[in-house]
Amino acid sequence: MKVLVTGGAGFIGSHVSDRLLADGYQVVIVDNLSTGKRENAPSKATLYEVDIREEALRQVFAQERPDAVVHHAAHIYVTASVREPAHDASVNILGSLNLLECCRKFAVRKIIYAGTGGAMFGQAKYLPVDEQHPIEPISPYGVSKHTVEHYLHTYKVNHDIDYVVLRYPNVYGPRQDPHGEAGVVAIFALALLNGRPCTIFGDGTKTRDYCYVTDIAEANLLALNGQASGIYNLGRGIEVSDLEIFETVREAVGVDTEPRYAPVRPGEVERIALDASKARRELGWAWQVDLREGVKRAVEFYRAQTERKGR
Ligand SMILES: NC(=O)c1ccc[n+]([C@@H]2O[C@H](COP(=O)([O-])OP(=O)(O)OC[C@H]3O[C@@H](n4cnc5c(N)ncnc54)[C@H](O)[C@@H]3O)[C@@H](O)[C@H]2O)c1
């Protein structure tokens, strides 16, 4: 079975591609390499350097005829989406629509979509948040990522294309881009390894639900292999404060640097943790890697990278 992975040269998409290849799938990657890197894409996958908004996407579908699509390409920056909502919408909404049209024209049977559980519920009314929680995004990114969930449903109703939405918590691990605004484990790890200061936005009490990237890749495989369909929150259901994540990374790096504090950035929620009971029941998914172990693995990746660069 052939799967087209958008964003497969990015952080999560590359781990998903690795997992699918290990399970015997053929993998084709579409990525414009805006934040992704060629070296992230597994060598066994075919990589097309194409923007999901372009007409060229259709040629990829015509050439490859994928059976299923796993959609990870996106503009991923919450605060930048507040500054430039049109750009965010162009990639996340119009790009996704171009992709869905290709799926329709080339008879793709199933789509797995990387949704967000962290940015579409707004300030949580209760925790952990399940799939019934009201949807009140406070950033254009949350709006654009959620909008695609509705389009997916219309393509199921009107064109019989099955879908699974996996709403991710804060995903972390090797290959996460440490240069943007997202990916705090990568950002803290590289800063601490290089003796640079770390900034916590707010007073350190904001919380997030952190999940290791291979656990997320496994969920994609289960969604693709199984019969389940619809929307699933993923996460450990555990709130981790900004200060706690800083301290966990600092311990793995082995330094005693103190963080700096700066005002909270626009678009960011106060607290979030996701209830993945439905994913456990219907997809058979359960997280495996605890925070300390996952952070240790991520830090070792960045340590090796830093040492290579230093040589
Ligand atoms: N990292 C998280 O914690 C998290 C949380 C919730 C949801 N998500 C979702 O998971 C997906 C992957 O995120 P990530 O953290 O791996 O980010 P990433 O930036 O590493 O991956 C995104 C990939 O998409 C590619 N891309 C961006 N715009 C494109 C375009 N117009 N055409 C083709 N390719 C394009 C980038 O080059 C990159 O390789 C995204 O859809 C994101 O919204 C991530």
Number of strands: 13
Report the mean per-residue pLDDT as an integer.
96
Second-tier CATH architecture of the largest domain: 3-Layer(aba) Sandwich
Distance, first to last CA: 42 Å
CATH superfamily membership of the largest domain:
NAD(P)-binding Rossmann-like Domain
What spatial order of strands do you see in the largest sheet?
A: 3-2-1-4-5-6-11
What does this molecule look like?
With 311 residues, the protein is an alpha/beta fold. The protein has two domains: 194 residues, Rossmann fold (3-Layer(aba) Sandwich); 97 residues, UDP-galactose 4-epimerase, domain 1 (Alpha-Beta Complex), CATH 3.90.25. It contains ten helices and 13 strands. The strands form four sheets. Strands 3-2-1-4-5-6-11 form a seven-stranded parallel β-sheet, sandwiched between helices. A two-stranded parallel ribbon has the order 7-10. Helix 1 packs across helix 7. The model has no long low-confidence stretch (mean pLDDT 96). Nicotinamide-adenine-dinucleotide (NAD) binds next to helix 1, helix 4, strand 5 and strand 7.
Give a short summary of the structure:
The protein has 311 residues and is α/β, with parallel strands linked by helices. The protein is built from ten helices and 13 strands. The model has no long low-confidence stretch (mean pLDDT 96).
